[in-house]
Design goal:
Blueprint: H1 8-13, H2 18-26, H3 29-43, H4 58-78, H5 83-93, H6 98-113, H7 116-127, E1 133-136, E2 152-156, E3 161-165, E4 173-174, E5 185-194, E6 197-207, E7 220-224, E8 240-244, E9 247-250, E10 260-261, E11 267-268, H8 279-309, H9 328-363, H10 370-398, H11 410-417, H12 427-444, H13 461-464, H14 480-503, H15 508-514, H16 516-539, H17 548-566, H18 568-573, H19 579-596, H20 600-605, H21 611-614, H22 625-635, H23 647-663
Bound molecules: ligand L4NZOF2J and flavin-adenine dinucleotide.
Domain Acyl-CoA oxidase C-terminal: 479-656
Family: Belongs to the acyl-CoA oxidase family.
GO biological process, one term: lipid homeostasis
Length: 664
């Protein structure tokens, strides 16, 4: 059976050019070529083997992670990989590690919040990994409420130093990745106190461990917070705790690009918005959105290939059974996830553009788009990670019993991914940021201030608050204007209803707290509109390749109509559409599933994942699932011996006892 492509028939059915779709998925031919080359490099290197991860103890897993990171760094230098290539290498190694935080948060925090002088000093060390850093913000007692952090950084003018201190147990840093066992340095967020006054949260570079023997520096207590969910999974990461007992650092280790403390201890506030201290979080949320499509597409690739291999029922007169992918229920669960993976890819691309745009504006002292950038990164991070975590679990169920096996690749993917709903901002807390932004925008309607960017639609409130959908037949739901109008009207009406309900409260903040659940739903409706509109905008671009645009068109409308179906209550209760129009949307959705069906396997092939990266018996490229499931089963340590360890102590006596009782 080796060498046979069990999915060849599926691949032959495709009505588009997979190679062209690979370029669209990657973002450009260049991006495709880099990813393809680096993925193969990782797959062919035995050090990056990962198939036995679940069987390693925490210590073995951690040590193997250190080995992989060291080997990766060596290869990056030997092969002179540039920043993009090195990033892809870390991505395809696919093992959470301290390097994610070093490159993903420590370096960006210094770039964003350090002065030029500080960048020169610290980045040259960090870029060569002569120091390794993490991002130490969250504490045992506070994560979401950043303003509630307790760690203090008190300026001592006598010595020109800050004294970093953990005043209570709840002030201990708790969770930072890479902190527990690896980082030599951290960007520590603490309350800045000078001349007896508390100036709120600021970032400080603090050395934690000796560069000679790696032992913690005096008055620093540091360790790992313990084992996390799942075998393997995120346990390769040393999330840590950290306590300071009056640790002194030079004044120039406060990140001073925004605000400063002078030699005399005078606090010089920033002349730019103080929220820029949160800039690293905005950056990372943007990368997390782009990453959501990676995780979801991976799960969807596994579930789609396996659904084409797996057969149940439907055999007549000894014929073959039905592929489970042909059941409409399977399609109704799987294809919206396939569509979501593509949707998140394109909204991720757009968000990257938005982030670059706001960064350029900030450099030119234009802060006007910062609130929108914050709302978009927060809201889309929340929306895409929630949908991806739920989607991975749905893919596990789509694979039936075998999906529950570790070797399906899905349990570990879920365990690694699911904390994305919490880290970098709890997903509910983040949607509430969007809701605040929406309430402000609604309050300004009619004031002469024209909403722009992702809230531009609110400027058409007069129309959107009273319009009725013109859809008369199922195909009308393929009209971008009809879809956009329905999503815009729903989002606006939900936001306006919240604003109206809010205005009934004398105390606005009290009203906000009372209406939290409705506000989150309004925020989600707004974020879904963004994703749908960016997918539609993508279709307006010049996309070449045989049949590619047609497939993307189908996926775009599957995504939109699936959301419409899922949130039908919103669309009906806001009178944006009628029950008849909802039923027509459903008819159209079924028709789109039929059109996607012959292309499904090719659409996941377009992700161009190697078997190494997928690490899934069910998602193998060749579809040769059953013999490989057996191979994996035989590898399990329980099958090392025919009679298990413990038989003589614990099984035999029980069996014998039962036998004696039966004879009596
Ligand atoms: C490293 C990863 C690299 C790559 C990623 C790729 C793939 C991912 C794979 C693996 C990930 C690996 C590791 C994961 C790393 C996770 C690391 C962390 O979790 S770090 C810790 C993150 N912590 C949080 O996110 C905390 C969440 N809380 C907050 O952000 C804020 O406190 C808040 C809840 C948004 C604000 O609360 P509050 O209302 O109290 O606000 P403030 O008083 O502080 O401010 C009010 C004012 O400011 C505006 N605002 C808030 N945040 C921002 C911002 N970020 N930018 C701009 N403006 C902001 C807010 O809207 C208010 O505005 P106003 O109403 O006054 O106009
Ligand atoms: C795997 C992982 C890695 C992490 N890495 C890092 C790191 O590298 N560096 C770092 O500094 N931190 C890190 N963190 C911490 C992370 O950023 C926080 O856990 C996260 O911001 C959530 O904060 P919290 O834990 O305080 O949740 P809480 O705020 O305590 O949330 C608990 C519940 O309360 C609800 N809630 C909270 N506030 C409100 C509100 N205002 N309104 C309504 N509901 C509310 C939430 O929705 C949630 O349901 C990591 C966390 C994890 C899980």
């Amino acid at each position: 059976m080796e060498g046979i492509d069990h999915l060849a028939d599926e691949r032959n059915k495709a009505e588009f050019d997979v190679e062209d779709m690979k370029i669209v998925w990657a973002g450009s031919r260049h991006a495709f070529e880099v990813s393809d080359r680096i993925a193969r490099l990782v797959a062919s290197d035995p050090v990056f083997e990962k198939s036995n991860r679940a069987r390693l103890s925490r210590k073995e897993l951690f040590k193997s992670t250190l080995r992989k990171c060291a080997h990766a760094f060596k290869r990056i230098i030997e092969l002179r990989l540039n920043e993009e290539e090195a990033g892809r290498l870390r991505h395809f190694i696919d093992q959470p590690a301290y390097v994610d935080l070093h490159w993903g948060m420590f370096v960006p925090a210094i770039k964003g919040q350090g002065t030029e002088e500080q960048q020169k000093k610290w980045l040259s060390l960090a870029n060569k990994m002569q120091i390794i850093g993490c991002y130490a913000q969250t504490e045992l007692g506070h994560g979401s409420n950043v303003q509630g952090l307790e760690t203090t950084a008190t300026f001592d003018p006598k010595t020109d130093e800050f004294v970093i201190h953990t005043p209570t147990q709840t002030a201990s840093k708790w969770w930072p990745g890479g902190l527990g066992k690896v980082s030599t340095h951290a960007v520590v967020y603490a309350r800045l106190i000078t001349n007896g006054k508390d100036y709120g949260i600021h970032g400080f570079i603090v050395q934690l461990r000796s560069l000679e023997d790696h032992s913690p520096l005096p008055n620093i207590t540091v360790g790992d917070i313990g084992t996390k969910m799942g075998n393997g999974a995120y346990n390769s990461m040393d999330n840590g705790f950290l306590m300071f007992d009056h640790v002194r650092i030079p004044r120039d280790q406060m990140l001073m690009r925004l605000s400063k403390v002078t030699r005399e201890g005078e606090y010089v506030p920033s002349d730019v918005p103080k929220q820029l201290v949160y800039g690293t979080m905005v950056y990372v949320r943007q990368t997390i959105v782009a990453d959501a499509s990676n995780a979801l597409s991976r799960a969807v690739c596994i579930a789609t290939r396996y659904s084409a291999v797996r057969r149940q029922f439907g055999a007549h007169n000894g014929g073959i059974e039905t592929q489970v992918i042909d059941y409409k229920t399977q399609q109704n669960r799987l294809f919206p996830l396939l569509a979501s993976a593509y949707a998140f890819r394109f909204v991720g691309e757009w968000l990257k553009w938005l982030y670059t745009d706001v960064t350029e504006r900030l450099a030119a002292s234009d802060f006007a788009t910062l609130p929108e950038a914050h709302a978009c990164t927060a809201g889309l991070k929340s929306l895409t990670t929630t949908a991806t975590a739920d989607g991975i679990e749905e893919c596990r169920k789509l694979c039936g019993g075998h999906g529950y096996l570790w070797c399906s690749g899905l349990p570990e993917l879920f365990a690694v991914y699911v904390p994305a709903c919490t880290y970098e901002g709890d997903n509910v807390v983040l949607q509430l940021q969007v809701a605040r932004f929406l309430m402000k925008t609604v309050a300004q309607l009619g004031s002469g201030k024209v909403p722009v960017g992702t809230t531009a639609y609110m400027g058409r409130a007069a129309h959107l608050l009273q319009c009725r959908s013109g859809v008369q037949k199922a195909e009308d739901w393929l009209n971008p204007d009809a879809v956009l109008e329905a999503f815009e009207a729903r989002a606006l009406r939900m936001a306006v209803t919240c604003a109206k309900n809010l205005s009934k409260f004398e105390n606005q903040e009290q009203g906000f707290q009372e209406l939290l659940a409705d506000l989150v739903e309004a925020a989600i409706a707004h974020c879904q509109l963004i994703v749908v509109s960016k997918f539609i905008a993508k279709l307006e671009q010049d996309i070449g390749g045989k049949g590619v645009k047609k497939q993307l068109n189908n996926l775009c409308y599957i995504y939109a109509l699936y959301l419409l179906h899922k949130h039908l209550g919103d669309f009906l209760s806001t009178n944006c559409i009628t029950p008849k129009q909802a039923s027509l949307a459903n008819d159209q959705l079924r028709s789109l599933y039929t059109q996607v069906r012959p292309n499904a396997v090719a659409l996941v092939d377009a992700f161009n994942y190697t078997d190494h990266y997928l690490n899934s018996v069910l998602g193998r490229y060749d579809g040769n699932v059953y013999p490989k499931l057996f191979e994996e089963a035989w590898k399990d340590p329980l099958n090392d011996s025919v009679v298990p360890d413990g038989y003589h102590e614990y099984l035999r006596p029980v069996l014998k006892q039962q036998l004696r009782t039966a004879r009596l």
